[in-house]
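Hi C.,

You asked whether I'd gotten around to modeling the 109-residue construct. I have! Everything is below, sequence then structure, no commentary in between.
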Amino acid sequence: MTEQNDIPIENKTEATGNQGMQVNVRMQQGEHAGQPLYSNFASIQGGQGVVIVDFGFLDPQTMNTLNQLVRSGKRVPDTVGARMSCRIALNVEAAHNLAHQLNQLLQKK
């Protein structure tokens, strides 16, 4: 399966300054890329020149229990166990492009 996206790629040159262009990128699946992953939360951390995005799965029953605790005014645990689905490390430019694409998608919804 091949996925095609219009991905904004910044072309930075001294003569022209910052310019953006659209390039069609045809992405081929890697060895394990064909396996769908489901996530119902994400956590983001920054490092030197890199953004790390952890996608995770929190059991729906745990989410319901937390919601019930909040509604009833009871104490919510400091820590809740979850399973990491995937960790992705992006350079800052790729993270910026991802944020831009997500914003465009969510504005349409």
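If it helps when you're writing up: Confidence is low (pLDDT under 50) at residues 10-16.

Thanks,
B.
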